[in-house]
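Key result, reporting period 2: structure in, sequence out.
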């Protein structure tokens, strides 16, 4: 972990912010590659990346503040913008970024669902690199492993402040690695004959399943939110079930749409 790259006078240049910005830039670059490879809308990707990036930063911070740490921030409102302390929720960032992308697509008459299918693997590149930022900053950490295995965080990090010099589960590292696995699975899925919208739904389902499981190891917040589940687990479960419903619906809709012209053609041939 290395929180600071260097200082300009008393002003620190933090690795967290630099790596977070890099995650947005590289995710946008991968999205451009995927869109250009598909042959549609690549000229809009940079603008969508800018709007989605800014919206994602705001959404990620507000999601963390209000869903995870409101007990603290309701008494420290001036610290809400202090993102370098840790506290950027990926779920809120993705939702806000996607909503900004949908808004942009509506303005420019782009089929946002088709575009989401094309570029959704790029989101995972941003998430994986974002977890590197968490590791460098010492946040999004795990609970104590109770053994010699685990990550040791240095003084000055939130992890050290919470648990001290004890080995913690590498929750953020494993999540970043699993993001790359999901990235590869989505690329493979896109080579299959799937209905429009299903790739985006699969992304939501796979990431939600990973996040639900890894939350059992997270130690930056441990209070139950709903039915004994942490807040991220509750939202992950909701996202998974919603995405599964839409995944099945999109598949049914495409089959139904293909069946209608066939029936119509048969009627015409009889005439």
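The corresponding designed sequence is given below.
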């Amino acid at each position: 972990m290395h929180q600071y790259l260097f200082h300009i006078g008393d002003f620190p240049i933090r690795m967290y912010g630099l790596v977070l910005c890099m995650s947005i830039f590289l995710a946008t670059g991968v999205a451009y590659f995927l869109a250009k490879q598909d042959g549609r809308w690549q000229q809009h990707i940079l603008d969508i990346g800018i709007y989605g990036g800014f919206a994602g930063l705001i959404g990620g911070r507000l999601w963390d503040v209000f869903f995870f740490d409101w007990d603290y921030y309701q008494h420290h409102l001036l610290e809400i913008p202090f993102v370098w302390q840790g506290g950027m929720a990926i779920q809120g960032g993705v939702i806000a970024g996607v909503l900004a992308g949908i808004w942009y697509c509506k303005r420019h008459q782009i089929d946002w669902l088709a575009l989401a299918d094309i570029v959704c693997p790029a989101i995972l590149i941003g998430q994986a690199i974002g977890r590197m930022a968490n590791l460098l900053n010492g946040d999004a950490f795990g609970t104590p492993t109770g053994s010699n295995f685990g990550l040791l965080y240095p003084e000055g990090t939130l992890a050290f402040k919470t648990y001290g010099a004890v080995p913690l589960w590498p929750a953020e590292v494993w999540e970043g690695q699993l993001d790359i696995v999901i990235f590869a699975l989505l690329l493979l899925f896109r080579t299959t004959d799937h209905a429009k919208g299903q790739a985006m739904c699969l992304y939501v389902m796979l990431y939600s399943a990973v996040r639900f499981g890894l939350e059992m190891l997270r130690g930056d917040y441990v209070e139950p939110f709903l039915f004994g589940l942490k807040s991220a687990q509750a939202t992950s479960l909701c996202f998974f079930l919603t995405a599964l419903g839409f995944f099945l619906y999109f598949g049914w809709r495409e089959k139904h749409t293909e069946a209608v012209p066939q029936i119509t053609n048969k009627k015409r041939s009889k005439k």
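Residues 117 and 199 are 5 Å apart (CA to CA). The first helix runs from residue 15 to 38. This case is discussed further under Risks and Mitigation.
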